[in-house]
Design goal:
heterodimer; A: mainly alpha; MetI-like fold; 2 strands; 1% strand; B: mainly alpha; 2 domains; 14 helices; 74% helix
């Protein structure tokens, strides 16, 4: 480590000599100086450590403790130790299954385009030699809009009477159906008359499209940073060897980008699994609970259903933590062969 | 150099232009809608060129009424705005101060428990915010901070510490030890070394942290929703969901204007500081 007394090398020796000249009162050496001062480090860390202990470590420990209790904040005195009951209940209770599957469904329709499209757009931006700054800025802009503002914005966008997205969707469905009619088939899809967000089949898709618009910029930035780190010589050598575009992508871009891909996939999966604010604002979990996600179920149990079941909700939170931990291990394992 | 054919690069440009247009289309649409009266919007006439369906005197089709209603405090928007700006500015300042001091302590001093503390910090990364949320909720009542701006501020500063500590610890570790030694030999105390040496050298890292923290607090939803219940302490993300219910049905124009005012400042700041934003976002995500 750099804190070894002689890390400064010759300059430190010279400096030490200077110090001896400047302060003849005591032979103050660097190592002595440091030894006296190391304890001061604690002082610098103290405010952060105290705040962290109080606001992060204690709540985490407290949630863990509570997850073994039947505990409601309304009746703190009637807390009852129930062992692993909360965990058993969260696995068995039917009301938890649907939110879990909804979340998984959202992850399945959201993450592939969220990662794939981002990579595609980043590669195109990276290949563009001129005029990319304006395009880049336009594509990144939605990232700074908060999820809540974005959700309200898209609620307007999906409005069945005046929403632009609704009109575009209706137009697209109409075109698809006309094309199908030309081929002699019946209508393939129907326009959700009450709007995308009021339709059981469309609501989650609508939310996913909104999340895509709102968040894809972050992934594009990450991929761009990764792409710019790949040495240009690799591609030049490949071109000399007569490698096709696909081969260059498969054998240079993908392996070189593996760490970034790993990171982006992981962050996207975790983000998708924590989906809460967008459905909370746009649909409230409806229609017919079709957009009720896992974290929303957790929120409802803890803060909405009137009983404030913090113990049970804590168990759900820890199960989520475990699930996310499992996913990160899985992604890490799957990432290996690419490297 | 891999030479691009002209047609290929034109195709690329066209595709990216389409993506860029799709990205900004919702903004343009909301801006247009915010100048329309409710009745026009309800007829589906949001764009300025579709203004002539409802028979009304000229000039009634484009209006500033929506903004006037907000300015007249018929909406809680000004309060939400103030709270959010206050939280984001104060929270960013405090997170940076407390976090970079701790990073300095962890990077430059070998005190007992240094390694242990850092490992503990590392471990908490794995814990999702939903776990912390429940414990903190109960704590807010115990500390009498529930439904108070101070409570949210404490939670935000604590929540952002980790990121600042990680980024700044790395920055401080990369500062050449000779510089620090020289300053110390010159008689500078550790406190002066921090302010005169670490802070100026680490300013890029600090800027990245500031952007990430500011954006994070500005956009935060779950904690603000859970730890507040009255109008006076609502933040913009929580407030706008209330306004959605309040204005959505009977005066959608005001909702358009509200959405516009909610994204405008942060989008403008982004356009001005674009370079730093991109750098900050990538630094943060790579550290996370």
């Amino acid at each position: 480590m750099r804190q070894t007394p002689n890390a400064g090398g010759t300059r430190a020796v010279v400096a030490r000599a200077d110090a001896a000249v400047a302060r003849p009162a005591g032979p103050e050496t660097l190592s002595g100086w440091r030894r006296r001062h190391h304890r001061k480090g604690l002082l610098y860390v103290l405010p952060a450590a105290l705040l962290f202990a109080l606001m992060i470590v204690y709540p985490i420990a407290r949630s863990f403790y509570l997850s073994f209790f039947d505990y409601s904040i309304l009746e703190p005195d009637s807390a009852r130790f129930v062992g692993l009951d909360n965990y058993a209940r969260l696995l068995l209770q039917k009301q938890n299954h649907d939110p879990f599957w909804h979340t998984l469904y959202f992850t399945a329709i959201f993450v592939p385009p969220f990662v794939g499209l981002a990579l595609l757009i980043a590669m195109m931006l990276n290949r563009l030699k001129r005029g990319s700054v304006a395009l880049r800025t336009a594509i990144f802009t939605p990232v700074v809009v908060s999820l809540a503002v974005s959700a309200v914005m898209w609620t307007l966008f999906y409005n069945p009477t005046f929403g632009l997205a609704h009109k575009l969707l209706a137009g697209a469905i109409g075109a698809v159906n006309r094309a199908a009619a030309l081929l002699g088939a019946g209508p393939i899809a129907t326009v959700p008359d009450g709007g995308v967000l009021a339709d059981k089949g469309w609501a989650m898709i609508g939310i996913a499209v909104m999340c895509l618009w709102n968040g894809i910029g972050v992934n594009i930035i990450l991929f761009l940073v990764g792409l710019q780190r790949i040495p240009e010589e690799l591609y030049e050598a490949a071109v000399v060897d007569g490698a096709s575009g696909w081969q260059r992508f498969r054998h240079i871009t993908l392996p070189q980008l593996a760490p970034t891909i790993y990171l982006v996939v992981l962050l996207s999966l975790i983000g998708a699994f924590k989906l809460f604010g967008q459905p909370f604002i746009m649909t409230g979990g409806g229609p017919e609970d079709s957009t009720l996600t896992y974290v929303m179920r957790l929120y409802n149990l803890a803060f909405k259903y009137g009983r404030f079941q913090l113990g049970y909700a804590s168990a759900l939170a820890y199960a989520l933590a475990l699930f996310i931990f499992g996913i990160s291990l899985l992604v890490r394992k799957l990432n290996r062969p690419v490297e | 150099m891999v030479v691009e054919r002209r047609s290929v690069s034109l195709t690329l440009w066209a595709i990216l232009l389409a993506v860029a247009l799709l990205s900004v289309l919702p903004f343009a649409w909301v801006i247009c809608g915010s100048f329309k009266p409710h009745l026009e919007i309800q007829r589906g006439n949001v764009w300025p060129w579709q203004a002539y369906e409802v028979e009304k005197p000229a000039g009634q089709h484009v209006t500033l009424d929506n903004y006037r209603k907000i300015a007249d405090k018929l909406s809680g928007l000004p309060t939400y705005y103030f709270n959010t700006v206050y939280l984001a500015v104060a929270g960013t300042f405090l997170s940076l101060l407390v976090g970079s001091l701790a990073a300095y302590g962890l990077a430059q001093f070998r005190f007992p428990g240094n390694k242990l503390l850092f490992t503990l910090l590392l471990l908490t990364i794995m814990i999702p915010g939903e776990v912390t949320l429940i414990g903190q909720y109960e704590l807010m009542f115990k500390l009498r901070l529930y439904d108070k701006i101070a409570g949210l501020l404490t939670a935000y500063v604590a929540g952002n510490l980790l990121l600042v500590i990680f980024i700044m610890r790395n920055v401080f570790l990369s500062i050449p030890q000779d510089l620090i030694d020289a300053a110390m030999i010159d008689g500078a105390g550790t406190w002066r070394v921090f302010w005169d040496l670490m802070v100026p050298i680490g300013r890029n890292g600090l800027a990245a942290c500031a952007i990430l923290t500011f954006l994070g607090i500005w956009n935060e939803f779950l904690f603000a929703l859970t730890f507040t219940s009255t109008e006076d302490v609502r933040t913009l993300p929580v407030g706008i969901t209330m306004l959605k219910g309040q204005w959505g049905l009977f005066n959608s124009g005001v909702l358009f204007a509200t959405v516009l005012l909610s994204f405008l400042p942060i989008v403008l700041v982004f356009l001005l500081l674009q370079k730093y934003f991109v750098r900050g976002l990538s630094a943060g995500a790579l550290k996370a």
